[in-house]
Design goal:
Number of strands: 2
Helix content: 25-40%
Order of helices and strands: HEE
Strand content: 15-25%
Structural class: alpha+beta
Number of helices: 1
Distance between the termini: 45 Å
Radius of gyration: 16 Å
Strand order of the largest sheet: 1-2
Shape: elongated
Length: 59
C-alpha cells in the first residue's frame, strides 16, 4: 500500500488478503487453461506462469 498516511497492520493485511483472493478469481477468467501462480517476492506479489500468446500464424 502506498500512501502518505500510516496504515494499521490489520488493515494492510485485510487489503492484501482481499487483493489476493480477487486476483485468484479473475486470472482463470482472463487467462483460461493456463498455469499462472501468484507468488510473493519480498514485499511484492508477482504473477508467474504461462503468458504465451499461442502459436504464430507465420510458421
Amino acid at each position: 500500500i502506498r500512501t502518505l498516511f500510516p496504515v494499521k497492520e490489520e488493515d494492510r493485511q485485510a487489503v492484501e488478503q482481499a487483493s489476493k483472493e480477487y486476483l485468484k478469481q479473475i486470472i482463470p477468467r482472463y487467462l483460461p487453461g493456463r498455469k499462472i501462480e501468484l507468488k510473493r517476492d519480498g514485499n511484492v506479489y508477482k504473477l508467474v506462469g504461462d503468458f504465451s500468446l499461442g502459436s504464430s500464424s507465420n510458421s
